[in-house]
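Everyone, carefully examine this protein record:
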Amino acid sequence: MFGRGERCFLGALLIGSLAVASAQYTKVRDHPSHHITRLRHSRHLDGYLPLHTSSFVPASSPKLAVKDNHKPLFTDCLNYRPTLKEEQPVGTYVFTVHADDRDPPEMGGTVIYKFVSTPGEKERFHVDPETGKITTADIFDHDEPSREKEAYITVRASDNGQPQLDDACTIKILIEDINDNQPVFDKVSYSESVPQDLPSGREVMRISATDIDDGNNSIVHYSLDSNSPDQSYFFIDPDNGVIFLNKTIDKLPGYKFKLSAIVKDMGDPPQQSSITLDIQVVESNKKSPSFIEVPDEPIRLKENYADFNTPIATVRAVSNIPEEKKLQFELVMGQTEQTNKWHTFVLEPEADSAYIKLGNHLDYEKITDYTLTVRIQNNYKLAAETIIQIEVEDVNDNIPIFSEIRSGSVLENEPPGTQVMQVRAFDADGTSANNQVTYELGDPSDPFAIDSVTGNITTLKIFDREERSFYNIKIIATDNSESALIPGKHNAGQQMFLVEIADKNDNPPHFTQDTYVAESIAENANINELVTQVTAVDIDTASVVTYSIVAGNTYNAFVIRNFTGEIRVNNELDYENITSYSLDVRAFDGQYEDYAKVLIKIENLNDNPPVFLANYTKTIEEEKLYEGCIVKVEAYDPDLDRNEPQDIVYSLVKHEQKEFLQIDNDGCLRLTKPLDRDQPSGFTRWQILIMAADHGGKLGSDSLRSTTEVILELTDINDNAPFLTNTQPVIWYENEPPGQVVVLTAKDYDSAENGPPFTFALNESASFDIRSKFHIQGNILSTLVSFDREQRKEYKIPVAITDSGTPRLTGVSILHVVIGDRNDNPMAPGHSNIFVYNYKGEAPDTEIGRVFVDDPDDWDLPDKRFMWLPSYEQRSPYFDVHSNTGMITMKEGTPNGTYLLRFNVTEENEPIVPFHWVEATVNVTIKEIPEEAVDKSGSIRFINITAEEFIVPEADGTSKKEKLHRMLADLYNTSMDNVDVFTVFSKLTVKDAFLDVRFSAHGSPYYPAEKLDSMVIGIQEKLEEQLQAKIYMVKIDECLIEKEQCEDSCRNVLMKNNVPLSVYTNTTSFVGVSARVESECTCDVEEPLICLNGGTPFADKCECPEGLSGPHCEQTSIGFHGDGWAMYAAPPACHEGHVTLTVTSHSSNSLVFYLGPLRFNPLLDVQDFMSLELVDGYPVLLVNYGSGTTKLNNSVVHVADGKPHLIEIVLMRSSIEMFVDRCKLSTCMSLAAPMGPREILNVNGPLQLGGASIDLQNLGRTFGWGIVPTNQHFVGCISNFTYNDFMYNLGEPSVHRNADPSCQRSMFTAVTFGIDTNFLVAILVCIAILVILLLAVVVHRRRADAWAEKELDDIRENIIAYEDEGGGEGDAGYDLHVLRQMYDGPPPDTDATFMHAPGVVGAAPDISGFLDDKKSVLDRDPDINPYDDVRHYAYEGDGNTSGSLSSLASCTDDGDLKFNYLSNCGPRFRKLADMYGGSDDDRAPHEESWC
C-alpha cells in the first residue's frame, strides 16, 4: 500500500488531470474525442447529468521524476546509551530513535519504525511507528531471581519508497537498580551461649545479612537496638556484624539476654530489617569452641572451575573441652544465592577439620561472589562462627551471538561506499576483557566492506540488479581474549546475511491488450460482482502498478480495484437505460502510465414485471349475469418492445372469486355467476385483483408478475327481506299488567331505497295463544294479559317485517320473550343427590352442589337462607354450607362413604310470600378412585349434548350417565360397583359442542383401555339408541385429524389433577375427576424408567428375571395358532415412524398385524390404517395415510419358512420403506410414495397382532378401501415388536384370543412340522416311559425317608404361589389373575360384525369380586394379623398364625421330624434343609429330585 504522502501526491495528480509522461518514455495513444454510450430509452435519463461529458485527453506537462531513492539511516545508532530503572510501570518512556531519509516525505522519505523479533518472541518494549518513541511493554526486575540487568532491541526503519528500503539498529538498554529490597538475615533466628566468665572485648557471635539489590543499595551496616534492655552488655562491628562482649557478665547461668539487631542498607531511601538475638549465660567452666585455622583472604575461583572433589578451603577448630575433641561443623545456608541458598558449596567435616568443596557449577554472569558462614558447636552446645569469602572470576566462555536482523538492501547504481546495513553481535561474558567484539567478512572477495568495530557494511562497487539481484555474505564476530572453551583461540560466531540489490523504477507499464471486451453482463448483476480484469505489465519489480477509470463510467456504474485491475459492478445496471459502456482505464506505476479501453455489453433479462395501462372501474347490476366482457384489462412487458407480442397471461388472484369470475389471456373479464351486493356474503364494491404474468422466455419461476384491481360497483335490487335486531331474550316479568314490552327494530341488507321504513306484524304462523296474549301496533310489541311464570316461562313470537323496497319483501324473525320470575310461591321440602369421585382421596375443599328445595319460583335465591339441622353445632364435620347461596363445600380429607345432610331453609318476600321454613336433605356419596383406574380408563366423546343433560334424571327417573353405567357393567360382565363413570367434561369448539366421558372397570386388576374401548365400539349403535345421544368418537384422540392440533408429530397425553370437575342441576349434581386428553406436538419424550414383570430398577436400566429380555423386562414374544389375535395400545402419530418386528411364520398366507379403525365412523373423515400380511410366504405391507392405500411387496425374501426374519418398516412424509433381514439392496428393498395429500399415519384403533378381531373385508367395503387386508390368522411367533425404539410388552396384551405369550406352544407346534407321524408317536412313547420311571424314583425316595407315614392333623392347604410376595390372609394386593378362567362367550348385545369369530375373549365371571369380599372380611378380622409375615413359615407350633404346612407335618414332635430329603429338592428348599435337615455329611453331593 502507498504511504500517506504518496497517496496525497497521487491524488493531486489525478485531481489536476495530469498525465505524467516524459518524451523519452511515454507511449502515446490516440483517444477519441468523445465516448459513445448506447442509450436504449432516452426518457430514462431525464433528470440525470452525465459524469463525463468530454473525453479524457492526456496532458503533455512533464511529470516529477524520482531519480534517487535513498534508504533511511540511523546516524546515531552507536551513540544510543539508554537506561531504564527496574520495576517501572508499562508505558514508561525509555528513549527515542531516529532515522534520516533524504527523500521527500511523499516520495520515499516517510519512515516507519518497528521491532525486529523472532517468531513467538514476547515484545517487552513498544515503538511508535511514526515518531520512534520507545516505551516499556513489560516490567523489568534487576534483582534475583530475574537478574535483568540489560535488554537488547533491534529497531528497523522502513521508508515508503519504490522499492521500500530500510535500516536496522541494535541497542542495549541498561536496567538500573533501585533500592526495592530489604536486607535479609542469613538465618531465620540466632541463638548463642556465652560463658559467665568471658572477658570483656571477646567475640560472642556473628550475624550476617544480604541485600539482593546492586551497588550502594546492597551495602549493609549492622547495629544493636538501643531500646533492648541488655544492649549495654554488647557492641557490634557495623561492617562485619561481629558482636563483642562490652562488659563483664553479672548474670547467673541460665539467664537469657534480651537483644535485637538491626541491619540497614546504604540506599536512598535506606531499607532495614531487624532480628531478635538469643544469648544464654552458661557456667564459667564451659568454653565455646574456637577456630584455629581459617583462610586469611578471599578465595578466588574461575567460573569454569569444576573440581568437585578437591577442597577449596580448610577450616580447623578446637572444642575447648578437656578430653573432648568432638565438634559439629555446619555450613550455614543463607536466604540468598550469595549466601549459599542453593548449596553451591558443601562442607565435609573430618575430626577437628572441615573441608569446603564445590557443590554446583559457577557462573560469573549470575553470581560474582559468595559469603559462606561456617559454624562449629561443642558438647556444651556452645558455638562459634567464621566467614569465608569466595570471589568468582570471569572467563571467556561465551560465543558472540548476532542480533535478529538477517538481511539488508542497497539500490542499484549507487556509488561505492554506500551503507548497506549494520550488524551487531553480543558477547554475554561479564567483563570487558572478554566481551569486546570485532567484525570481519568471511569471504574477502565479496564486494562489500565491514567496519570491524561498528559492524557497518558498505559497498565496494556499483551494483546492477539485472546482473545480480542478491548476495549472501558471511560475517564473523570475534571476542577479545583467549577462549575458555577452545584453548589457544578466541570465541567467534558467524552468520549469513542476505543483501538484496533493490530495483529502480525506470520502465513504464504496458497493458496486455489495447481493448478489453466483457460480453453479456447481466443487468441484475450483484453489486461488487466481477465484470472483467485488466492487466498491465511493468518489468521493474519494485514498481507497483495502480489502475483507475478515467472516462466513460456513466452513473459511476463500475469501479476498478487499484492494484488488481478487477473491474466490478458499483451501481445497479439497467438494460432499459444503457445497453453498453466504453471505459478508459489508466495504469500508473508512480512515474509512468499507459491507457486501454474496456467495452462492457449489458445483457437484457426479464427483470421488469408487466405494467398495466390503468386501473379499472365498472358499475353493474347485482344478481345479473352479463354476456361477454364486463371489463377488458391490458398490460405490457417493459422488457420487450411494445411492437412485439407481449405474451402476458392473466389470472384472478383471489381464489374465492373464481366461482363468480374468469379471465382469459386477452384480458377479458367475464361473469360466470351473478354477483351479490348485500350482506352477509355480498359487497357494494367488489375488488377484483387481476394478476399479469410474463413468460420471460421461460415458463415457471422465471416469470414476473404484477397486479391491478378492477372495482365493480353493484347497483341494488330488493332481494333481501328485513330481520329483527333486538337484543334477545326480552324479559317481561310475571304479574305485570298489560303494557309495552319492547320497541321492535329491524335491519335490511339492501340499500336505503329498498330498506326502511319497516312494517311489523304478528306472522300468520303465530299460535292462538300468542295472538291472545300479544299484539303489535306500529313497531311496539305489547301484552294483552298478565303472565304467570309458573304456567309458562317463555314465548317464541314470530314477527313479520316488511320493507319499503320495490317490490316489497317480508321476512319473519322469532322474538324470544322470557317471563321474568317474581317470588310469589312458597317453597316445599326438597331432596337432592350428589355423587363425588375423589381422585386418590386428594381433593381439596370443593363446591359440590346446592341445597335443593321444591319451589316453583326459580329466581328467588336472594330471599332464602340456609342453616344446618338439627343445629350448627351438630353439623357434619366434612361439609360446609353457604348461608346465602346454599352451596355445599366438601372439605379436604373427607373419607369415602354416604352422608345424609339436613338443612333448614327459610324464605321471606313480604307481603306476597310470608316468612316460612322447610327442611331439605342432600344425600352425598363420596367414592375414592385410584390412579390406576384413571390411567387405564376408556373414553367416549359425545356430540351436541351438555353435561347437565347427561346427568339429569329423565322421564324414567334415570339419567344418561346411569344408563351408560348399567350398560357398561353388562358389557364387561361385572357388577356396577366395579364400573366407574368418573369424568363428565364439556368441550366446546368453534364448530361443535362435545361431551367427554371417561370410565373404568375392573375385576381384580383394572381392565386396560384397549379392552374397554374396543368392546364399547362393538355396541356403539345400541349405546346411541339407549342414551339418545350421538357418539362422535370412542377413545378420545386429539391427534386424529391431521394437522388440526400439530403440524408434525402429535401424541395424546392424559392430563390429571386432584381438583374435581363439577356439574350442577337441581336434584342431581356430579363431581368427577379432572382427566382430559391434550395433544403434545412431539414424539420425542423421555419416559420414566418403569420395570415390568417383576424387574427392579438399577441405575438407568432394569435388572430382569430370567427369560425377560426387553429393556424394561418386557416379555418380547407371543405366538398364534391360526385362530387367535392380541390387542395392544396404538402408537402415536409421528411424522417419522420406524417399526421393527421379528416374524417366525408357519403359514404362507396370513395377517401379521393390523393397525387401524375397528368401525366406520361417518362423522370423521379418517380412514388411516397399516397392515402387514404374508402372501405366498412373502411380506406385503399396506399403508393408508387417509387419502389412498399404498402397497409394498417384497418378492425376494421368503418369510414363511419357520425361521425368524427381521422386518423393518420406515414411515415418512414422502416415502414408505420396507426391509427384510436388513437387506438394503435395491432388489430386496421395497419403496413407495404415500398416496394423496396426507402425510402422517393417524389411527384411532388398537394394534392387533396375529389376526384381527373384526371382519376386515366388511370394514374395507364400508370405508371404500381399494386394497383390503386379509382375514386369515397367523401361525407362528412374533417377537421384538418396536415402534420408534419403544418395545411392546407382547406377553401382556390388553385383550387376546387364543394367544400364546412367550411362544411356548408355538415352539412345540414348530417341531411337529415336517416330522413323520410314526416317528412322532415313538418319541411320545419314550417320553412317557421316562416320566413313569422318574415318578417311580421319586416315590421310592419318599418312602425311604418315611415322611409320608407321619401323622397329619391340622392340615391347612393354601392356594398360594410362593414366588409371589406375601401369602398370608392380609395380603390386599394379591393378583387373582392366576385364577381367572377363559370365557369364550361373546359379550351380550355385541355387534356380530365387530367380533366375527366365535370364542372372542370377553370378561371372566365375577369370581374376583366374590373373593375380594371374602378377603376384605378376613382383613377386618381383629384376630388375624393385618400383614404378611414370612417368619411364621419358618417354625411350627401354636405360635404359627397360619396353622401348619402339610409338607412339614407341623403337629408332630421334634423327635419324629426327618427332613433330610429336603436337601435334594433344589436351591429353593435350601433354607428349610438347613433348618430341619440332617448334617451336611448326610446329603448326597449334587443330587436333586423333582420335589
The chain has a mean pLDDT of 82. The CA atoms of residues 617 and 715 lie 13 Å apart. The radius of gyration is 57 Å. DSSP finds 13 helices and 88 strands in the chain.
